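User: My instructor asked us to take a sequence, write out its structure as tokens, and then describe one feature of it. I'm not sure where to start. Here is the sequence I was given:
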Amino acid sequence: SFHLAFFFQMDTTQESYLDLFPLDAIVYLTPDSENVLEDIDPKKVYVLGGLVDESIHKKLTLQKARDQSLQTARLPIREYMVKTINTKNYHSETLAINQVFDVLSTYYKTRSWPAALKAGVSSGKGYVLPNAMN
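Assistant: Let's start with the prediction itself. The structure tokens for your sequence are:
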């Protein structure tokens, strides 16, 4: 194993998270969830769902979590950020896994969603913090 971001230890395994943790401890993070992640609970295990092509597999991560009877949550992007005007009229709450990790690790350190979202949500997603529009 190796240390990531100075305070996370990462281990890899071939085992499924369903075999490693109790179902009621798992929270599957998906942008399609109706539940907003308001805080990180150290007793929970957060699974970062990932896809290769979001346009083809719309809501697939949410369906996977439902099939496995898992709790779901989404990052509070629309609660803390605003849509920006852009030439493509593009707005997406779907982030790459490394971006989600950046959001979660920054929130863990700062307990500030604005700081966390600023760290992980690029302006190319079409969302910015309200004070960034001034």
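For the description part of your assignment, you could build on this observation: Residues 1-7 have pLDDT under 50 and may be disordered. Try explaining in your own words what that tells you about the chain.
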